[in-house]
């Protein structure tokens, strides 16, 4: 018998060859070599897909005669040294170099046969795993049966050369490719996908000053607390125990970076710049808007329409089954689950499922102007035009009349519902005062705020920082915007007189937002000391803020 070595210039003589056949063997050697070279060429051109196949050709002869017909073959890839181990066999049953149980039928023509080892489309042939070639010495062992003489193991085993090992390219182990194998400049920005390198992929200390270009990150600035307008490509270190908040730049370029590190006991928060405004939903006669503390859940009401809610920070809005009324004001608990709304010449309604369903409460029908809520939604306060202030301590189920009759226009509440503030107008919209309460509305005190046509008021979470705005006499002309840092005892006029319509505050009272009828939106990041105009002129009616100062308006 004869067996061709894989890719080598030789024929192994397994039985004695007659001298007169030597010329024939030389010719066959040349012919087989050409076939092997063609196979190797095809394997190289297809390496990008790394097929799990090994093309093998062999030759068998029975009693010196080239066999022709259907032969039965068994194949195994085994170790080259003792003790012999089986790495693979055609049916997966071989162990310790033994013959597999099931055979592969192949057509043999004049002693020659071809087989794709690992071709699972062939009966009794299993896929050759690439892990076979993690072993340095792998050899092919073959058994043959011509149907008459029984099984015979062909010897010697044939060592697999480099072609089979190319299969390893399909599963390169982690860490196999080191810097020494990558040419200088071979990997640049064009070869790295967006987001391919994350923080988890960068070892601690891997990026230091030597890896950063000059000026890439500026010298860190220490921040001890309060609000900070961040500058692009700047590093900040938050020190001390006071909390700090950062507002991102109003404009930035792709690739700009800010680095903020906490080095003290205080925490820090980052908010987008309020200069970024996006129109949502369609034009309606919007009257009031409120926000959950994280700014994701919003509620807004329409005069002569319905109540609308959003659970994606205002991207989409859903009309809820609130009924069509002249809605004037809405308020929200911190988690956005408990909502309260009031209508002019209507009732106060509450919701405990983020606005999906609404319940009319026993508040009576009146000209309700404004409502406010504690952070847990249990304590509510509402004001009535030409009447009194009402409070509730059971999420709106029952209401108690408070204070004397005034032309109440707006109310606000601290997070715990203990500190309340309300502003009033005169009987003919000719000016009123601001009132505060420190006992959840049981008693009220008129503060030295001056007589103004107040339109809106807002409070920090602890009730110490307040902001209020006004319009001109009789609702015409302009009025001031004022702030207080002592729970309303004293007030300071801010900015210019305008037709202010609504104000809102972050939980710490540092970030404020106000809107002007027929004018712009204005924001402040220093508790109202300075104001910056944002957005274009519109008939703004109401504004709201998340706890961190992310703003919405209507």
Q: Which structural category do the helix and sheet elements fall into?
A: mainly beta
Assigned CATH class of the largest domain:
Mainly Beta
* β-strand amount: 35-45%
Main sheet: strands, sense, barrel: 15 strands, antiparallel
Tally of DSSP helical segments: 2
Question: How far do the termini sit from each other?
Answer: 93 Å
**Low-confidence stretches at least 5 residues in length (pLDDT < 50)?**
1-48
Count of distinct strands: 41
- What is the alpha-carbon Rg in Å? 42 Å
Mean pLDDT over the residues: 80
Number of domains: 3
- In CATH terms, the superfamily of the largest domain is YVTN repeat-like/Quinoprotein amine dehydrogenase
CATH architecture of the largest domain: 7 Propeller
- What form results from the Cα inertia axes? elongated
* Helix percentage: under 10%
Quote the CATH topology of the largest domain. Answer: Methylamine Dehydrogenase, Chain H
What does this structure look like?
The chain folds into three domains: 2-171, no CATH class; 217-273, no CATH class; 286-553, YVTN repeat-like/Quinoprotein amine dehydrogenase (Methylamine Dehydrogenase, Chain H), CATH 2.130.10.10. The protein has two helices and 41 strands. The chain has a 15-stranded antiparallel β-sheet that branches. Strands 6, 7, 8, 10 and 11 form a five-stranded antiparallel β-sheet that branches. Strands 33-34-35-36 form a four-stranded antiparallel β-sheet, with no helix packed on it. A hairpin with a 6-residue loop joins strand 26 (366-373) and strand 27 (380-384). The longest helix has 24 residues, at 22-45. Helices cover 5% and strands 42% of the residues. With 554 residues, it is mostly beta strands.
């Amino acid at each position: 018998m004869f067996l061709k070595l894989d890719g080598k210039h030789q024929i192994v003589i397994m039985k004695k060859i007659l001298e007169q056949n030597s010329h024939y063997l030389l010719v066959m050697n040349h012919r087989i070599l050409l076939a092997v070279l063609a196979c190797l060429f095809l394997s190289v051109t297809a390496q990008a897909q790394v097929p799990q196949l090994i093309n093998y050709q062999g030759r068998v002869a029975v009693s010196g005669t080239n066999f022709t017909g259907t032969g039965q073959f068994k194949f195994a890839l085994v170790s080259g040294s003792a003790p012999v181990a089986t790495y693979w066999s055609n049916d997966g049953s071989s162990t310790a170099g033994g013959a597999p149980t099931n055979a592969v039928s192949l057509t043999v023509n004049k002693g020659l046969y071809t087989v794709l080892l690992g071709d699972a489309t062939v009966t009794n042939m299993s896929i050759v795993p690439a892990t076979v070639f993690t072993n340095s010495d792998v050899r092919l062992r073959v058994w043959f049966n011509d149907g008459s003489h029984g099984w015979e193991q062909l010897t010697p085993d044939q060592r697999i050369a480099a072609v089979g090992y190319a299969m390893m390219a399909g599963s390169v182990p982690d860490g196999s490719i080191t810097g020494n194998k990558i040419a200088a400049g071979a990997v640049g920005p064009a070869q790295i996908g967006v987001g391919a390198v994350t923080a988890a992929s960068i070892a601690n200390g891997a990026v230091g000053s030597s890896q950063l270009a000059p000026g890439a990150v500026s010298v860190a600035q220490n921040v001890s607390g309060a609000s900070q307008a961040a500058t692009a490509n700047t590093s900040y270190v938050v020190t001390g125990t006071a909390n700090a908040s950062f507002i991102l730049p109003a404009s930035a370029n792709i690739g700009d970076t800010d680095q903020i590190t906490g080095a003290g006991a205080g925490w820090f928060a980052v908010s987008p710049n309020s200069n970024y405004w996006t129109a949502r939903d369609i034009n309606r006669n919007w009257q009031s808007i409120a926000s959950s503390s994280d700014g994701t859940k919003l509620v807004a009401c329409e005069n002569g329409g319905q109540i609308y809610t959003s659970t994606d920070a205002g991207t989409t809005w859903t009309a809820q089954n609130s009924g069509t009324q002249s809605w004037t004001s809405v308020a929200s608990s911190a988690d956005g689950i408990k909502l309260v709304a009031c209508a002019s010449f209507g009732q106060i309604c509450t919701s405990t499922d983020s606005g999906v369903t609404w319940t009319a409460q026993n508040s009576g029908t009146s000209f309700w102007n404004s409502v406010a809520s504690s952070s847990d939604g249990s304590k509510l306060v509402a004001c009535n035009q030409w009447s009194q202030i009402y409070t509730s301590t059971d999420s709106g189920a029952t209401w108690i009349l408070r204070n004397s009759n005034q032309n109440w226009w707006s109310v606000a509440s601290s997070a715990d519902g203990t500190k309340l503030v309300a502003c009033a107008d005169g009987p003919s919209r000719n000016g009123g005062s601001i009132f505060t309460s420190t006992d959840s509305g049981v008693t009220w005190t008129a503060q030295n705020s001056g007589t103004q046509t107040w339109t809106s008021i807002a409070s920090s979470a602890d009730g110490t920082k307040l902001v209020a705005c006004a319009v001109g006499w009789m609702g015409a002309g302009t009025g001031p915007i004022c702030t207080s840092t002592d729970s309303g005892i004293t007030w300071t006029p801010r900015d210019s007189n305008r037709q202010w319509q609504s104000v809102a505050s972050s939980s710490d009272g540092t970030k404020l937002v106000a809107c002007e009828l027929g004018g712009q939106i204005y924001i402040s990041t220093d508790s109202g000391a300075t104001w910056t105009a944002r957005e274009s002129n519109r008939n703004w009616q109401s504004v709201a803020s998340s706890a961190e100062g992310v703003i919405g308006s209507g």
